[in-house]
Amino acid sequence: IYVVFFYFISSEERHLRANDREYNLSFMYANNAIKTSKYNVFTFLPLNLFEQFQRLANAYFVFLLILQLIPQISSLSWFTTVVPLLLVLSITLAKDLSDDITRHKNDKHVNNRKVEVLINGELKSEKWMNVQVGDIVKLENNEFVTADLLLLSSSEPLNLIYIETAELDGTLIKYTISILYISGEVRCEPPNNRLDKFTGTLTVRGETFALDNERILLRGCTLRNTEWCFGLVVFGGPDTKLMQNSGKSIFKRTSIDHLMNFLVMFIFGFLAFLCTILSIGNGIWEYKEGNSFITFLPRADGANASLSAFLTFWSYVIILNTVVPISLYVSVEILRLGNSYFIDWDCKMYHVKSNTPAQARTTTLNEELGQIKYIFSDKTGTLTQNIMTFNRCSINGKSYGEVVDFAGQRVEVTEKTEKIDFSWNSLADPKFCFHDHKLVEAVKSGSPEVRAFFRLLALCHTVMAEEKTEGELFYQAQSPDEGALVTAARNFGFVFRSRTPETISLVEMGVPTTYELLAVLDFNNVRKRMSVIGCIRCPLNSWRSPQNTLIVRVTHGLRTLALAYKDLDEDKFEEWKERHHEASTSLEDREAKLDAIYEEIEKDLLLLGASAVEDKLQDGVPQTIEQLAKADIKIWVLTGDKQETAENIGYSCNMLREEMKEIFIVASNTAEEVREELVNARKKMSPESGDEPPIEKSRFLGKKSQVVEDEKVNGEYGLVINGHSLAFALQKDMQLELLRTACMCQAVICCRVTPLQKAQVVELVKKHKKAVTLAIGDGANDVSMIKTAHIGVGISGQEGMQAVLSSDFSFAQFRYLQRLLLVHGRWSYLRMCKFLRYFFYKNFTFTFVHFWYAFFCGFSAQTVYDEWFITLYNLIYAALPVIGLSLFDQDVNDRWSFQYPQLYAPGQLNQYFSKMAFARILLHSCYSSLILFFVPWAAMCDTVRDDGKDIADYQSFALLAQTCLLIVVSVQLGLDTYYWTAVSQFFLWGSLSVYFAVTFTMYSNGMYLIFTSSFPFIGTARNSLNQPNIWLTIFLTTILCILPVVAKRFLFIQLKPTINDKVGSTVPPPAPRKVPRRRISTRRSGYAFSHARGYGDLVTSGRFLRIPVKTRSALFPHTDTPVADSTPQTYRTIYEGAQSP
User: Fold this and answer.
1) Residues 1021, 948 contacting (CB under 8 angstroms)
2) I need a labelling partner for 113 at 20 to 30 A (CA). Which of 327, 630, 861, 1106 fits?
3) Which residue, 834, 877, 884, is CA-closest to 334?
4) What is the pLDDT of residues 870-923, one digit of tens each?
5) Closest CA to 318 of 55, 79, 86, 88
6) How far apart (Å, rounded) are the C-alpha atoms in residues 494 and 516?
7) Residues forming the active site
């Protein structure tokens, strides 16, 4: 086994030589061309048709066409099936062609990009698609990376480069180390999708060097602030890690899609049932009455009643084919596409500051936006801005940052509050804001503690500085926290100017000072602190650890950092340094050994003070969460932040509230303790809940599912659970207990969770609850839950575009989520349900009239309508009005949707379209068809014209029946329309006008003379429609069909009104605007630094980096508000008991 495994790995590894195309081509590696398109000129038509005929409805109509070509079966002309089928196929063909042409253009644009390649010792410009594995390419600043490259050299000091990987993994800063060889042989791992790992070796002149991920530059990155670099192509085109990660996305289908598939299967069975009844009727009729007609309708040889019944079955399959909705799927796609454009075009979801519109990245999930029950949200960058500001600090026991008036009372800081003037500091950042003048006075007065505090902030970090012009400093930091702290030190007179691997240069109150950097004790998620050891280059020659970060608890709900220092003895430091070197070069347990070494020196520190930075909430977050909660949508926050930080954000954004009965904290370290805490919490919320979860078992198409039903809870509760406890709670034997307890709570916060745990939580709710889930995030670590949820929403923020690229919908701010759900989502769901109800109603009514007519025509498969009416009914006469209804209808406008978020509830309960609603449509269609057949039949029976001539012929009856049908379904559509637009009016009246125009044209003498066999209804229209009794019959039929609908709606409004009825009957007055008092939280908060391992090793190794100039965004934007965006969503408290808005 071991031998086989080793052989497999070695046979899959990649061999290549630098700049040796002949050798590399012998391995037949993929070139650098990419292909995302599905078709080409030759495969488009056959492949697309093959895909379309995999749809059951399309394949069924091809089967019908074959039946219609059999003379013994068909009583309908072939064009009644061919015309609708061709139209449906053509629309889908055109849509797929347009999409694939776009993909071809994108591929061509990428493949034809130019890059310089080293060929025969000269740099030549080549297209990307012509680059081969083993080529050496030259990249210049701001260029996209051509392929996965092994870096060889760069223009920067120590051959470092700076790359932006936001398009790849969400990271904005990445340091990559290059090597100085341009020839040799590389052996490395085969193509894979692991972005964070690379294994290989480079052999040069008989010497072998290890290669890792730090020396690889991936396709999808952008070269920044580096004039040039050379790289060796390792993977090209489809083998690159970017393309390996861009596999097929999970195909998401809505609950309505699943229901439609079930209903289509039911319709097939129902069609077979109807045809069986009619074929049995034909057999009985042929047996009893058939002999009477043999004289003038002779039977074929061997024909009998049984054979006639068999053929009749297939004849009625053709006649009643309209019960199977061939145009259903195409109409649904048109409807979804239109509603997607409404999202794209919504100016009220356009973010002015970032020039980012809302985008519907998929067109198949719109109506599910109106059924969301659970929202899973990231915190940093989603609820917050991920832009840190230095808010306050505590130095030597004294707090700074609060603004007080002359009476000593605290004053709330606003944009009008006087800011500190930093004009005395020529290197200050003009965008930095602070309001407490006492801190500046302490710095200027020479307070040693205050100056030491800011000196520590300026020294202990991994920030990179660049100064392209004198006095203009630009900082690039691993985390926004570091950037905020170093900028604060800069403005208060301790300016971080530059660094080398051995030194850090500051300007302290105008005096240039250089510190020797002796060691960096890097931050990691276990130690949760960082230290630096250095000495100032001056006669004092003291050894000092300028800063050590600790985890402490302070007030005001900010992200906090404690600062401490101590003097070190030189001899002890040298001895510690030797042991540190041994630990850092250890091949086993290196990290544990380093942590132990760090712990030795990070003791007995003198606490100097603490800093606090604020990650501000995005505009409108608390109000948005309040509105969504009123719509009975539960929000769970899944974040990697510490418990105290996440808990405080929960209070800040109104998820957790003081008026909640209790907030449960689950933070145990064993599985049994976690179970006990979850059970105790559940028992407190619902004492009568049993030990076993209330599970509803269901089976659908052979697939078993277990759904945990909701349990009643008195009052509101919250739940906070950390990642360690969550790992136990997600175990198979405990996950239902977690689900029961969490779903009883109004708000759930999961902190310190990994990306995998985020996806597991979403999958748990998705699997065991009858609910639609939505996940929203802004970073690469949110991609897993975005793809797992029914709906994924990406926010284009500070953490790159990976979340957006993986999402179904995207926008710039969390507050737009309420408009996406409460307006667009609810409208889309309402329109889709109305469309399906009306679509099935008009088709079933049309088909049932054929069924009743069979009892009067000897079950002979005779059609009750004209063949041209059958062909055009679903294509023209009844198609455009329902499209107009489904695209433009609104029960209430967007303002009322915000005013009454309770209107969202029917979508969560599937009240507008379900199996029960389908059954009601079936009964309604049956009643309407009875009226549409028997009333015209009774009116035409033994009836004469005004001049005494007979009018009771088949053609006149057919014209009357089809006219009554079209008018009834049109009036029914008018009753279902809440919001009339010019387009809706045009489609409805235009369709009726087209019907009469086409009818008089087709039944004219001219058409009969030109196409005698195709237009036999000569003169029927003008002879029938000029009779008053015909129009009276049409009016009576319409009244009888519509009256029960109107009566039912009136009674239900009076006796059992829905939320829509209550809102529709209310004219709301403007509610008083309640301005909530700003809550000063005393919750615990978390440390400021990032949870990822820092770049200390890189800084001290000499592999440092120059940082590019970037424009710093304003800390207090003036346009990033609902008012500036001209949005109508006025965030305020909405009372259910209010009379009106």
Assistant:
1) no
2) 1106
3) 884
4) 888 888 888 889 888 889 988 888 888 898 899 999 999 888 998 999 999 999
5) 79
6) 16
7) 378
